[in-house]
Write a structure and sequence with these properties.
The protein is of the alpha+beta class and about 170 residues long. It folds into two domains: about 30 residues; about 120 residues, OB fold (Dihydrolipoamide Acetyltransferase, E2P) (Beta Barrel), CATH 2.40.50. A hairpin with a 2-residue loop joins strand 1 and strand 2. It is elongated.
Length: about 170
């Protein structure tokens, strides 16, 4: 009586097809991750450049420099806040929750020159309640300007970023 072989231990053609499909899915994922296109909102006068710009509902505040809008994870560009479990992190997270409460509307302006970070989060300036959240959290001392990325960001030479310490 012969042994039954599983899917991956069967013939070579099936294995090749499986590997090819995995490869195509992986490539599609990485290409999709880099380019996210959105329809321009009515408030687009607050948006600059040509990258994504959209309005949505705040689903969650993750920490002092990361939130979720319309299920997209957004990292506040040029903002470096302490992690929620580090010194100052709880205050930064609370302040971001105050600026952008869950259920409130937010305008997200994606950075033209660096669309996402290494974790797949959109890098953006976020507006909540008519305030530029990136600037507000820096001005109130709940975060530091992320100088390392000033020259890489579309927003690095804007007056609010220069005023906060971008060269």
């Amino acid at each position: 009586m012969g042994r039954k072989r599983g899917f991956l231990f069967g013939n070579r053609r099936r294995k090749s097809l499986f590997v090819f499909i995995l490869f195509v899915v992986a490539i599609a994922y990485f290409l999709r991750r880099e380019e996210v296109h959105f329809q321009r909102p009515e408030e687009s006068d607050k948006c600059s450049g040509t990258a994504g710009c959209f309005t949505g509902i705040v689903n969650r505040v993750i920490d002092g420099d990361t939130l979720e809008v319309n299920s997209f994870r957004i990292r506040l560009v040029l903002v470096d806040a302490s992690e929620w479990n580090a010194a100052g992190g709880t205050a930064a997270t609370s302040y971001l929750r105050q600026l952008c409460p869950v259920g409130s509307q937010a305008l997200v302006d994606q950075d033209d020159r660096q669309h996402t970070d290494n974790y797949g989060r959109l890098l953006a300036v976020v507006w909540c309640g008519g305030k530029r959240v990136n600037e507000e959290i820096l001005r109130e001392g709940h975060a530091r300007i992320y100088r390392r990325f000033c020259s890489q960001s579309e927003f690095g030479d804007q007056p609010w970023a220069v005023g906060m310490g971008c060269p």
